Amino acid sequence: MHDDGKRFRVYLQVVGTIVGILAAATPGVIWAVDHFGHQDPKPPAATQAQSAARNEAGDQQAPPPATTAAGPTTVATTPVAAGNRAYLDTLSPDTGSTNLADLPRALREQPGYEHPVTMPCGSNNSGDTKRLVSYLLEKRYVNLTADVHSYKANPDEYRVQLRFYADNNQPQVVELTGNQQQQFTMPVDGVKKLTLELTCERPGALVTLTNAWLDRA
Fold first, then answer.
1. In the beta sheet, which residues pair with residue 182?
2. What is the rounded average pLDDT for all residues in the chain?
3. What's the rounded Cα separation, in Å, for the pair 107 and 109?
4. Residue 22: which H helix or E strand, with range?
5. Minimal CA–CA distance to 183: which of 192, 172, 193, 174?
6. pTM given for the model
7. Predicted local confidence at residue 72, as pLDDT
8. Residue 156 and residue 158: Cα distance in Å, rounded?
């Protein structure tokens, strides 16, 4: 009996020790389970604030890029050179200015007759069979572009011929029959003088270059 009582006391001591160990370890076990075994449905207050800030920033779209207000539109009241071009009607003739004329009233309101350079036909009398006008280009331009119009108030089967001389080179020729129109372009790179020579089959007609421009070198 004595031995049995001793063994029972030893057993109680062992059990007490184990219970004490388990009691001491329980808070750590519970903390580990809470942190690694489960996710807290509600993050800490600081994390909530950061998340709310990110959500708020995401809901606000960036403003559109700033734009500059357009300035007022201006309309030139006199013929001017546009960009890198010079209109022929803005240049002063070197010779033959008296062989130029105003655009006829019947054509002034017609579309396509902007920047006109008008040459009337000669009378075809002795000494008046052709008209010449020249311009000093002084190698400042590379191309000439124009629309060439022939016109007569009472049109019939008449013919006109306009020759374009670049210095003393062979001319380029535009020939029109009746009231016609033809687009024309020629190189003038390195040219010092441009000369226009008009001859007509009959008097009373005229030739007009419209929108004639020179591209600057």
1. 148
2. 75
3. 6
4. helix 2-32
5. 174
6. 0.61
7. 26
8. 6
